[in-house]
Prior knowledge:
With 342 residues, this protein is α/β, with parallel strands linked by helices. Helices cover 34% and strands 25% of the residues. The chain contains 12 helices and 16 strands. Strands 5-6-7-8-9-10-11-12 form an 8-stranded parallel beta sheet. It has a 3-stranded antiparallel beta sheet with strand order 1-2-3. Helix 12 (285-292) links the parallel strand 11 (275-279) and strand 12 (300-302). Helix 7 packs parallel to helix 8. The longest helix has 19 residues, at 90-108. The mean pLDDT is 96. Residues 178, 180, 205-206, 230, 250 line the site of magnesium ion.
Amino acid sequence: MKISATPFQLQFKHPFHLATGVRTHTDIVVVKLEAEGVTGFGEASLPPYLAENTASVMDFLMKLNPRRLDLKGPISQQLAYIDALAPGNTAAKAALDIALHDWTGKSKGISVSEMIGLPSGSKVNSTFTIGISDVSGLEEKLVQAAPFHMIKLKLGSPDDRALIEAFLERCDKPFCVDVNQGWKDKTFAADMADYLAEKGALFIEQPMPVSMHAETMRLRERSPLPLIADESVQRLTDLQKIAECFDGVNIKLMKSTGIAEAHRMVTEARRIGLKVVVGCMAESSCAVAAASHLAPLADWADLDGPLLMRNDPFDGLVFEDGQVVVPGGAGLGVRVGDGAGF
Ligand code: MG
Protein backbone atom coordinates (compact mmCIF):
# COMPACT_ATOMS: atom_id res chain seq x y z
CA MET A 1 0.00 0.00 0.00
CA LYS A 2 1.13 3.52 -0.76
CA ILE A 3 -0.08 6.73 0.86
CA SER A 4 0.89 10.07 -0.69
CA ALA A 5 -0.19 13.63 -0.02
CA THR A 6 -0.28 16.76 -2.17
CA PRO A 7 -0.81 20.31 -0.86
CA PHE A 8 -3.22 22.39 -2.95
CA GLN A 9 -4.72 25.85 -2.66
CA LEU A 10 -8.47 26.29 -3.23
CA GLN A 11 -9.21 29.79 -4.57
CA PHE A 12 -12.49 31.47 -3.67
CA LYS A 13 -14.48 32.91 -6.59
CA HIS A 14 -14.98 36.03 -4.47
CA PRO A 15 -13.09 37.12 -1.34
CA PHE A 16 -14.96 35.47 1.55
CA HIS A 17 -15.79 37.83 4.46
CA LEU A 18 -16.48 36.33 7.88
CA ALA A 19 -16.53 37.68 11.43
CA THR A 20 -12.98 36.26 11.67
CA GLY A 21 -11.59 38.13 8.62
CA VAL A 22 -11.39 38.02 4.82
CA ARG A 23 -10.04 35.05 2.86
CA THR A 24 -9.10 34.66 -0.80
CA HIS A 25 -8.05 31.01 -0.60
CA THR A 26 -7.89 27.97 1.67
CA ASP A 27 -5.08 25.42 1.83
CA ILE A 28 -6.02 21.76 1.52
CA VAL A 29 -4.00 18.55 1.42
CA VAL A 30 -5.21 15.79 -0.91
CA VAL A 31 -4.37 12.29 0.36
CA LYS A 32 -4.12 9.38 -2.05
CA LEU A 33 -4.24 5.76 -0.88
CA GLU A 34 -3.20 3.16 -3.46
CA ALA A 35 -3.42 -0.60 -2.96
CA GLU A 36 -4.40 -3.64 -5.02
CA GLY A 37 -4.94 -1.50 -8.12
CA VAL A 38 -7.54 0.69 -6.38
CA THR A 39 -7.01 4.36 -5.49
CA GLY A 40 -8.89 6.17 -2.73
CA PHE A 41 -8.81 9.93 -2.21
CA GLY A 42 -9.26 12.04 0.90
CA GLU A 43 -8.88 15.70 1.80
CA ALA A 44 -7.86 17.83 4.76
CA SER A 45 -9.15 21.42 4.63
CA LEU A 46 -7.13 23.91 6.62
CA PRO A 47 -8.84 27.26 7.25
CA PRO A 48 -6.32 29.69 8.79
CA TYR A 49 -8.24 30.23 12.06
CA LEU A 50 -7.73 26.57 13.06
CA ALA A 51 -4.63 24.95 14.53
CA GLU A 52 -3.78 22.66 11.63
CA ASN A 53 -1.88 23.66 8.50
CA THR A 54 -0.21 21.96 5.54
CA ALA A 55 2.97 21.25 7.52
CA SER A 56 1.09 19.72 10.47
CA VAL A 57 -0.88 17.44 8.13
CA MET A 58 2.35 16.30 6.42
CA ASP A 59 3.94 15.70 9.85
CA PHE A 60 0.95 13.68 11.00
CA LEU A 61 1.04 11.52 7.86
CA MET A 62 4.74 10.83 8.52
CA LYS A 63 3.74 9.21 11.82
CA LEU A 64 1.59 6.70 9.96
CA ASN A 65 3.00 3.27 9.25
CA PRO A 66 0.99 2.03 6.22
CA ARG A 67 1.85 -1.55 7.14
CA ARG A 68 -0.29 -1.13 10.27
CA LEU A 69 -3.37 -0.48 8.10
CA ASP A 70 -5.08 -3.80 7.40
CA LEU A 71 -7.34 -2.93 4.50
CA LYS A 72 -9.08 -6.29 4.81
CA GLY A 73 -10.12 -5.48 8.39
CA PRO A 74 -12.94 -3.17 9.50
CA ILE A 75 -12.40 0.57 8.88
CA SER A 76 -13.09 1.19 12.59
CA GLN A 77 -9.92 -0.74 13.46
CA GLN A 78 -7.79 1.33 11.06
CA LEU A 79 -9.32 4.56 12.36
CA ALA A 80 -8.59 3.61 15.97
CA TYR A 81 -4.92 3.17 15.04
CA ILE A 82 -4.88 6.52 13.19
CA ASP A 83 -6.63 8.38 16.03
CA ALA A 84 -4.11 7.09 18.56
CA LEU A 85 -1.11 8.42 16.60
CA ALA A 86 -1.43 11.91 18.12
CA PRO A 87 -4.15 14.06 19.72
CA GLY A 88 -5.88 16.77 17.65
CA ASN A 89 -5.08 16.69 13.93
CA THR A 90 -8.77 16.23 13.14
CA ALA A 91 -8.48 17.37 9.50
CA ALA A 92 -5.49 15.10 8.83
CA LYS A 93 -7.42 12.20 10.39
CA ALA A 94 -10.46 13.13 8.29
CA ALA A 95 -8.38 12.98 5.09
CA LEU A 96 -7.35 9.41 5.95
CA ASP A 97 -10.88 8.40 6.99
CA ILE A 98 -12.27 9.75 3.69
CA ALA A 99 -9.55 8.01 1.64
CA LEU A 100 -10.20 4.72 3.48
CA HIS A 101 -13.95 4.97 2.80
CA ASP A 102 -13.29 5.82 -0.87
CA TRP A 103 -10.82 2.95 -1.26
CA THR A 104 -13.04 0.42 0.51
CA GLY A 105 -16.17 1.44 -1.41
CA LYS A 106 -14.33 1.27 -4.72
CA SER A 107 -12.80 -2.10 -3.95
CA LYS A 108 -16.24 -3.51 -3.03
CA GLY A 109 -18.04 -1.71 -5.87
CA ILE A 110 -20.45 0.09 -3.52
CA SER A 111 -21.00 3.74 -2.62
CA VAL A 112 -20.13 5.26 0.76
CA SER A 113 -23.90 5.67 1.30
CA GLU A 114 -24.33 1.91 0.94
CA MET A 115 -21.36 1.31 3.26
CA ILE A 116 -23.21 3.18 6.02
CA GLY A 117 -26.59 1.62 5.28
CA LEU A 118 -28.25 4.40 3.30
CA PRO A 119 -29.64 4.39 -0.23
CA SER A 120 -27.48 6.02 -2.94
CA GLY A 121 -28.41 8.83 -5.23
CA SER A 122 -30.79 10.82 -3.03
CA LYS A 123 -31.03 14.61 -3.36
CA VAL A 124 -30.77 16.90 -0.37
CA ASN A 125 -31.47 20.64 -0.14
CA SER A 126 -28.33 22.58 0.69
CA THR A 127 -28.07 26.11 1.96
CA PHE A 128 -26.12 28.62 -0.13
CA THR A 129 -23.74 30.73 1.95
CA ILE A 130 -23.41 34.48 1.52
CA GLY A 131 -20.38 35.99 3.25
CA ILE A 132 -20.57 39.38 4.96
CA SER A 133 -21.27 41.72 2.01
CA ASP A 134 -22.06 45.25 1.09
CA VAL A 135 -25.27 45.75 -0.87
CA SER A 136 -23.71 45.49 -4.35
CA GLY A 137 -21.85 42.31 -3.34
CA LEU A 138 -25.07 40.93 -1.92
CA GLU A 139 -26.91 41.42 -5.21
CA GLU A 140 -24.24 39.51 -7.13
CA LYS A 141 -24.26 36.65 -4.64
CA LEU A 142 -28.06 36.42 -4.76
CA VAL A 143 -27.78 35.77 -8.50
CA GLN A 144 -25.53 32.76 -7.75
CA ALA A 145 -27.91 31.72 -4.97
CA ALA A 146 -30.93 31.69 -7.31
CA PRO A 147 -31.31 27.88 -7.58
CA PHE A 148 -31.08 27.37 -3.81
CA HIS A 149 -34.06 27.07 -1.48
CA MET A 150 -32.38 28.25 1.70
CA ILE A 151 -29.75 30.93 2.28
CA LYS A 152 -27.15 31.12 5.03
CA LEU A 153 -26.08 34.66 5.82
CA LYS A 154 -22.79 35.22 7.57
CA LEU A 155 -23.11 37.84 10.30
CA GLY A 156 -20.85 39.28 12.97
CA SER A 157 -20.06 42.74 11.56
CA PRO A 158 -21.31 46.11 12.89
CA ASP A 159 -23.68 46.20 9.87
CA ASP A 160 -25.61 43.01 10.64
CA ARG A 161 -29.03 44.66 10.67
CA ALA A 162 -28.37 46.58 7.46
CA LEU A 163 -27.31 43.35 5.75
CA ILE A 164 -30.49 41.56 6.90
CA GLU A 165 -32.67 44.47 5.73
CA ALA A 166 -30.89 44.55 2.35
CA PHE A 167 -31.30 40.77 2.02
CA LEU A 168 -35.01 40.82 2.89
CA GLU A 169 -35.68 43.57 0.36
CA ARG A 170 -34.24 41.33 -2.37
CA CYS A 171 -35.02 37.74 -1.36
CA ASP A 172 -37.95 36.00 0.29
CA LYS A 173 -36.38 32.56 0.69
CA PRO A 174 -35.99 30.87 4.08
CA PHE A 175 -32.73 31.90 5.69
CA CYS A 176 -30.53 31.18 8.67
CA VAL A 177 -27.54 33.10 10.03
CA ASP A 178 -24.04 32.09 11.08
CA VAL A 179 -22.30 34.55 13.38
CA ASN A 180 -18.98 32.64 13.65
CA GLN A 181 -18.61 33.70 17.34
CA GLY A 182 -18.97 37.36 16.32
CA TRP A 183 -21.33 38.64 19.07
CA LYS A 184 -19.34 39.28 22.20
CA ASP A 185 -21.93 41.31 24.13
CA LYS A 186 -24.77 39.32 25.67
CA THR A 187 -27.33 42.13 25.53
CA PHE A 188 -26.55 42.76 21.87
CA ALA A 189 -26.82 39.02 21.15
CA ALA A 190 -30.21 38.82 22.88
CA ASP A 191 -31.51 41.85 20.96
CA MET A 192 -30.28 40.35 17.69
CA ALA A 193 -31.99 37.03 18.44
CA ASP A 194 -35.31 38.86 18.96
CA TYR A 195 -34.77 40.92 15.83
CA LEU A 196 -33.89 37.87 13.69
CA ALA A 197 -36.94 35.96 14.97
CA GLU A 198 -39.11 38.89 13.97
CA LYS A 199 -37.50 38.82 10.52
CA GLY A 200 -38.16 35.09 10.07
CA ALA A 201 -34.69 33.54 10.44
CA LEU A 202 -34.72 29.76 11.03
CA PHE A 203 -31.76 29.48 13.40
CA ILE A 204 -28.62 31.20 14.65
CA GLU A 205 -25.32 29.35 14.31
CA GLN A 206 -22.53 29.95 16.84
CA PRO A 207 -23.64 33.42 18.01
CA MET A 208 -20.98 33.88 20.69
CA PRO A 209 -17.34 32.85 21.24
CA VAL A 210 -16.66 29.29 22.36
CA SER A 211 -15.32 30.71 25.65
CA MET A 212 -18.73 32.33 26.40
CA HIS A 213 -20.40 29.03 27.31
CA ALA A 214 -22.39 30.40 30.27
CA GLU A 215 -23.51 33.48 28.31
CA THR A 216 -24.63 31.24 25.43
CA MET A 217 -26.63 29.16 27.90
CA ARG A 218 -28.43 32.31 29.09
CA LEU A 219 -28.97 33.45 25.51
CA ARG A 220 -30.58 30.12 24.72
CA GLU A 221 -33.01 30.48 27.64
CA ARG A 222 -34.43 33.66 26.17
CA SER A 223 -33.77 33.29 22.43
CA PRO A 224 -36.90 32.67 20.37
CA LEU A 225 -34.68 31.01 17.73
CA PRO A 226 -32.78 27.72 18.00
CA LEU A 227 -29.03 28.06 18.53
CA ILE A 228 -26.75 25.73 16.55
CA ALA A 229 -23.22 24.96 17.75
CA ASP A 230 -20.37 24.96 15.23
CA GLU A 231 -17.01 26.07 16.64
CA SER A 232 -18.13 24.88 20.12
CA VAL A 233 -18.18 21.26 18.91
CA GLN A 234 -15.41 19.21 17.42
CA ARG A 235 -15.94 15.55 18.13
CA LEU A 236 -18.42 13.05 19.57
CA THR A 237 -17.26 13.64 23.13
CA ASP A 238 -18.17 17.35 22.89
CA LEU A 239 -21.88 16.80 22.25
CA GLN A 240 -23.03 16.20 25.80
CA LYS A 241 -21.46 19.40 27.16
CA ILE A 242 -22.97 21.68 24.51
CA ALA A 243 -26.46 20.18 24.76
CA GLU A 244 -27.10 22.51 27.72
CA CYS A 245 -26.57 25.69 25.68
CA PHE A 246 -27.45 24.78 22.09
CA ASP A 247 -30.45 23.25 20.32
CA GLY A 248 -28.46 21.67 17.52
CA VAL A 249 -25.03 21.01 16.10
CA ASN A 250 -23.23 21.59 12.81
CA ILE A 251 -21.26 18.38 12.21
CA LYS A 252 -18.30 18.71 9.83
CA LEU A 253 -15.90 15.98 8.76
CA MET A 254 -12.84 18.20 9.33
CA LYS A 255 -13.79 18.50 13.01
CA SER A 256 -15.11 14.98 13.60
CA THR A 257 -12.06 13.18 12.11
CA GLY A 258 -14.12 12.00 9.15
CA ILE A 259 -17.18 10.06 8.03
CA ALA A 260 -17.20 7.32 10.66
CA GLU A 261 -17.22 9.59 13.72
CA ALA A 262 -19.53 12.14 12.04
CA HIS A 263 -22.03 9.31 11.51
CA ARG A 264 -21.84 8.38 15.19
CA MET A 265 -22.26 12.07 16.08
CA VAL A 266 -25.47 12.29 14.05
CA THR A 267 -26.85 9.28 15.93
CA GLU A 268 -25.80 10.64 19.34
CA ALA A 269 -27.09 14.16 18.57
CA ARG A 270 -30.49 12.67 17.74
CA ARG A 271 -30.46 10.57 20.90
CA ILE A 272 -29.94 13.63 23.11
CA GLY A 273 -32.46 15.76 21.22
CA LEU A 274 -30.19 18.00 19.15
CA LYS A 275 -31.03 19.16 15.63
CA VAL A 276 -28.39 18.26 13.05
CA VAL A 277 -26.71 20.29 10.32
CA VAL A 278 -24.20 18.46 8.14
CA GLY A 279 -21.79 21.17 7.04
CA CYS A 280 -18.42 21.73 5.46
CA MET A 281 -15.43 24.05 5.57
CA ALA A 282 -13.98 25.57 2.40
CA GLU A 283 -13.53 22.16 0.75
CA SER A 284 -13.34 20.66 -2.70
CA SER A 285 -15.85 18.17 -4.07
CA CYS A 286 -13.79 15.35 -2.55
CA ALA A 287 -14.50 16.10 1.12
CA VAL A 288 -17.95 17.54 0.41
CA ALA A 289 -18.96 14.41 -1.49
CA ALA A 290 -17.86 12.47 1.59
CA ALA A 291 -20.11 14.63 3.80
CA SER A 292 -22.99 14.42 1.33
CA HIS A 293 -23.36 10.71 2.04
CA LEU A 294 -24.45 11.68 5.59
CA ALA A 295 -26.65 14.59 4.49
CA PRO A 296 -29.89 12.56 4.16
CA LEU A 297 -29.67 12.03 7.95
CA ALA A 298 -29.57 15.78 8.74
CA ASP A 299 -32.26 18.40 9.35
CA TRP A 300 -30.27 20.83 7.20
CA ALA A 301 -27.30 20.41 4.87
CA ASP A 302 -24.77 23.17 4.36
CA LEU A 303 -22.61 21.73 1.59
CA ASP A 304 -22.10 24.52 -0.91
CA GLY A 305 -18.32 24.72 -0.29
CA PRO A 306 -17.21 23.59 -3.78
CA LEU A 307 -19.54 26.13 -5.43
CA LEU A 308 -17.65 28.98 -3.76
CA MET A 309 -14.35 27.81 -5.30
CA ARG A 310 -12.95 28.64 -8.73
CA ASN A 311 -10.54 25.67 -8.98
CA ASP A 312 -12.25 22.60 -7.51
CA PRO A 313 -9.80 19.79 -8.46
CA PHE A 314 -12.46 17.02 -8.28
CA ASP A 315 -15.40 16.30 -10.59
CA GLY A 316 -18.58 14.35 -10.06
CA LEU A 317 -20.43 16.14 -7.28
CA VAL A 318 -23.53 17.64 -8.84
CA PHE A 319 -25.91 20.31 -7.57
CA GLU A 320 -29.34 20.39 -9.19
CA ASP A 321 -31.94 23.03 -8.38
CA GLY A 322 -30.26 23.91 -5.12
CA GLN A 323 -29.95 20.29 -4.09
CA VAL A 324 -26.80 18.24 -3.70
CA VAL A 325 -27.10 14.92 -5.53
CA VAL A 326 -25.47 12.31 -3.29
CA PRO A 327 -23.13 10.50 -5.70
CA GLY A 328 -24.11 6.95 -6.54
CA GLY A 329 -20.82 5.64 -7.94
CA ALA A 330 -18.43 3.40 -6.01
CA GLY A 331 -16.67 4.99 -3.03
CA LEU A 332 -17.15 8.75 -2.69
CA GLY A 333 -18.42 8.96 -6.27
CA VAL A 334 -16.02 11.71 -7.41
CA ARG A 335 -12.90 11.63 -9.59
CA VAL A 336 -9.84 13.80 -10.05
CA GLY A 337 -10.55 16.52 -12.61
CA ASP A 338 -8.51 17.03 -15.77
CA GLY A 339 -5.13 18.57 -15.11
CA ALA A 340 -5.29 18.36 -11.29
CA GLY A 341 -2.34 15.97 -11.31
CA PHE A 342 -2.91 14.04 -8.08
MG1 MG B 1 -20.41 27.90 11.00
